[in-house]
Design brief:
By secondary structure, this protein is α/β, with parallel strands linked by helices. The protein folds into three domains: about 220 residues, 3-Layer(aba) Sandwich (Rossmann fold), CATH 3.40.50.620; about 80 residues, Orthogonal Bundle (Tyrosyl-Transfer RNA Synthetase), CATH 1.10.240.10; about 80 residues, Structural Genomics Hypothetical 15.5 Kd Protein In mrcA-pckA Intergenic Region, Chain A (Roll), CATH 3.10.290.10. The protein contains 19 helices and 15 strands. Strands 1-6-5-2-3-4 form a six-stranded mixed sheet, sandwiched between helices. A five-stranded mixed sheet has the order 9-15-14-11-12. The protein is globular. Its main location: cytoplasm. It is found in: Cytoplasm. GO terms for molecular function: ATP binding; protein homodimerization activity; RNA binding; tyrosine-tRNA ligase activity.
Length: about 425
């Protein structure tokens, strides 16, 4: 970004590394300086929680609100029924209305922790695009909206082009997604005065379509801003850990496991992640990120505490840090470790340790558990586990048993009281 912004929002977004591209930096900056700007990001309800890969854009909405503007979180109650084909290798499984509604309820819990929803000028709005998409009349939509889209141009967008170049099928249902998202932006402008759509850089084509449609139909100038697609310094996609997705909903991932994900950040990513995922001053983020040796571990604890406090509260962050200290420094089991509770009936005459590793979430498959054991990466109550055929009975599980996969991932197994 070469433009030097005047608005607080663009200044913060640039300093903290949120900006990949913008359709009109100067025009957006002038709008931000002139008054409250309503801006939205859309989220399809494909799961009951967001994961860490989404968190960058939620933080961008948080900064938008903190700098005096109005965030809109748009739930894709309508578009989830179609599925976004952007940079996907295959069509997404379709969900029914009940599953979509249940997922939206879970997403609302996450947003409420990071944004303030109220009736003030900068109070966040939670909307659902099913409000205007569910009742569309197909022929009228084709005539009034479809005529503004060039198929040639739609085929040129990288999100579609990459799919076709790999000779992978793109259904007509998916092809409609970008038209529906463009229509969302226009409707949000018409109904709520929304003038900015934000999203990951993979959404650039969809955003530009919405701007073009709104200009053609409403004769209104609106803006788009994208964030970088976030990956770790070693090339891994954000949002995934060794044991699966890093969910933001505490019903799907415990605050301890969330804290531990951030504590395990690669050294090279600490400064960058502090800027994006915390509200610490930029200078302090740079200072902490430049630390070396054992000092960088202290910076990782600061990162984990700051991010966990934002999402789950200061008490959860403090408890997670205390549990981590007990587990790693004192060799204890830690009361806050992820726990697998089994009934006596489930244990029966005995249950294999391989099955326990899978059911506790430390590995995904029995094959992976056996490989971990063979590679000397598994421990039970801090002792090396070398026998993949070990079976634990009810007596052995009468008190919690600690399982470890490597040095950083642990779980407890016990019989439910």
């Amino acid at each position: 970004m070469t433009y030097n912004p005047k608005s607080d929002f663009l200044t913060v977004a640039r300093e903290r590394g949120f900006i990949a591209d913008c359709t009109d930096y100067q025009g957006l900056d002038e709008a931000l300086v002139s008054g409250v700007v309503p801006a939205y990001i859309g989220y399809d309800a494909t799961a009951p929680s967001l994961h860490v890969g989404h968190q960058m854009n939620v933080m961008l909405l948080r900064w938008l609100q903190k700098t005096g503007h109005k965030p809109i979180t748009l739930m894709g109650g309508g578009t989830t029924k179609v599925g976004d084909p952007s940079f996907r290798s295959e069509e997404r499984p379709l969900l029914d209305n009940a599953a979509i509604d249940a997922n939206i309820a879970g997403l609302k819990d996450v947003f409420a922790k990071l944004l303030t929803y109220d009736d003030s000028p900068t109070g966040a709005l939670m909307l659902n695009n099913a409000e205007w998409l569910d009742d569309l009349k197909y022929l009228e939509f084709l005539r009034d909206i479809g005529r503004h889209f060039s198929v040639n141009r739609m085929l040129s967008f990288e999100s579609v082009k990459s799919r076709l170049d790999r000779e992978q099928s793109l259904s007509f249902l998916e092809f409609n997604y970008m038209i529906l998202q463009a229509y969302d932006f226009m409707e949000l402008n018409r109904r709520y005065g929304c003038v900015l759509q934000m999203g990951g850089s993979d959404q650039w084509g969809n955003i530009v379509n919405g701007i073009d449609l709104t200009r053609r139909v409403l004769d209104t100038e609106i803006f788009g801003l994208t964030t970088p697609l976030l990956a770790t310094s070693d090339g891994r996609k954000m949002g995934k850990s060794a044991s699966g997705a890093v969910w933001l909903n505490d019903k799907m991932l415990s605050p301890y496991e969330y804290w531990q994900f951030w504590r395990n950040t690669t050294d090279a990513d600490v400064g960058r992640f502090l800027k994006i995922f915390t509200e610490l001053p930029v200078d302090e983020c740079d200072r902490l990120g430049a630390l070396g040796g054992s000092e960088i571990n202290g910076a990782k604890v600061i990162l984990a505490n700051a991010v966990t406090t934002l999402l789950h509260g200061a008490e959860a962050a403090a408890t997670a840090e205390a549990t981590a200290r007990e587990v790693f420094e004192k060799g204890g089991v830690g009361d806050d470790l992820p726990t697998l509770e089994l009934t006596a009936a489930e244990v029966g005459d005995g249950i294999s340790v391989v099955q326990l590793f899978v059911r506790s979430g430390l590995v995904k498959t029995g094959k992976e558990a056996k490989r971990l054991i063979a590679d000397n990466g598994a421990r039970i109550d801090d002792a090396p586990l070398t026998d993949a055929g070990m079976v634990l009975d009810a007596a052995a599980l009468a008190s919690p048993v600690k399982l470890s996969a490597g040095k950083k991932r642990h779980a407890l197994v016990k019989i439910a009281a």
